[in-house]
Description:
This protein is mainly beta. It has a domain at 217-357: Conserved domain protein (Immunoglobulin-like), CATH 2.60.40.1640. Helices cover 9% and strands 45% of the residues. Strand 5 (113-122) and strand 6 form a beta hairpin. It starts with 12 loop residues before the first helix and ends with a strand. The relative contact order is 0.18.
Amino acid sequence: xxxxxxxxxxxxxxxxxxxxxxxxxxxxxxxxxxxxxxxxxxxxxxxxxxxxxxxxxxxxxxxxxxxxxxxxxxxxxxxxxxxxxxxxxxxxxxxxxxxxxxxxxxxxxxxxxxxxxxxxxxxxxxxxxxxxxxxxxxxxxxxxxxxxxxxxxxxxxxxxxxxxxxxxxxxxxxxxxxxxxxxxxxxxxxxxxxxxxxxxxxxxxxxxxxxxxxxxxxxxxxxxxxxxxxxxxxxxxxxxxxxxxxxxxxxxxxxxxxxxxxxxxxxxxxxxxxxxxxxxxxxxxxxxxxxxxxxxxxxxxxxxxxxxxxxxxxxxxxxxxxxxxxxxxxxxxxxxxxxxxxxxxxxxxxxxxxxxxxxx
Length: 360
């Protein structure tokens, strides 16, 4: 598993738009993800990263969070078959079985390297993309870097989060999954443009229309608490064939994040049904923004699909505190400074659990 995209100062935005437009006009369905946000006037934006055994974070008005479940799933993918169907992620398999995924199967070959856009799923949590790669010659490690860049209706997003991972099946073949964390301002239907770049300058363009899965059921949640300076506001529980999720915001004093002591971005959840059976968590991306002296984080935490006989779920928030790492701060002038990760000063807190009734 690789870290998701790092910020880039030289994102070729106009070239990407031109390439996408040309591809659409030619009917070849050809369409870069992740542009570093420009810091507005009077607004302090920063990048902060913590890497450890427990978690990895990158904040750029958006935080990337690697999913151990995704890495584990990729490790089991065989040479032949569907990337989603052969995954051990229950939500992906179930969504495919129910016909909720978009099966693309489009292949493009450059310099003897064939890349296939296999399948796409757009649900309440993520846009998940499955790829297959096959080359006439051996490919080196990290040949495709940190994965694909993307556009929404031909426009590069101002900020994004997600993860990318690939499994090397042989020197010439591999599969990959990329997730793009869904945010509230994403349309339910749009043209997804994808750009994958190779180590030797190859560029594969893809474009496909996608629609959000419509079987998603949403239950409003009104659970708000403030513990040791962290305010947690859980707003919604949603579930469907591809999985369940908890939507929430959390906030704290922004100076803590500036000093590398942020905790509001470390919130995870443990979920059980009415019989005490745990529903497996897959974490989820986090986006953060400074607002009037506070850091406010927004996220959808993801879980396996719930069974049809589940009548209620009880969810307990907790802090997933990394065991080590470091960080980089960036002020409004674009100057970077090292942030020391002081694990001893970050203490766990106890949140109250909340229960959601599932209608039948």
